[in-house]
Amino acid sequence: MARIRPSRVAEQIKKEITDILYHELKDPRIGFVTITGVEVSRDLQHAKVFASVLGSDEEKALSLEALQKATGFIRSEVGRRIRLHHTPEIVFKLDTSEDYSQRISHVIRQLQGERGDRP
């Protein structure tokens, strides 16, 4: 029997969760959420799902809370859609890489502006 690679399972989970978010969940607290990545453990027992949320810190917190409350439903849907021996436990994490990259860009622009002012 061929072994299923965690990276392939992670991509499939990402695809299915994205579809579930857009077509199945009707929670108004879930704002503009994008699933940016999924990390699956080697034994396929655990999956960290990284979500990027557009909006204020309060909106991000509400969206993450709504995702965490819907974890059971999402996990059961993923299990129904992907035929695995065991459906991974899903944990949602807020992806802050976009905020970090914006902060770095802002600092670089400031430094370039200071450098441009010098003779």
UniProtKB/TrEMBL annotation:
Quaternary structure and interacting proteins, as annotated: Monomer. Binds 30S ribosomal subunits, but not 50S ribosomal subunits or 70S ribosomes.
InterPro entries assigned to the protein according to its UniProt record, in alphabetical order: KH_dom-like_a/b, RbfA, RbfA_dom_sf
Main location: cytoplasm
The name this protein goes by in its record: Ribosome-binding factor A
The UniProt record lists the keyword Secreted: no
Gene: rbfA
Free-text function comment from the UniProt entry: One of several proteins that assist in the late maturation steps of the functional core of the 30S ribosomal subunit. Associates with free 30S ribosomal subunits (but not with 30S subunits that are part of 70S ribosomes or polysomes). Required for efficient processing of 16S rRNA. May interact with the 5'-terminal helix region of 16S rRNA.
Gene Ontology biological-process annotations: maturation of SSU-rRNA
Alphabetical UniProt keywords: Cytoplasm, Ribosome biogenesis
GO molecular function: ribosomal small subunit binding
Pfam families the UniProt entry points to: RBFA
Entry similarity comment: Belongs to the RbfA family.
Localization per Swiss-Prot or TrEMBL: Cytoplasm
A cellular-component GO term for this protein: cytosol
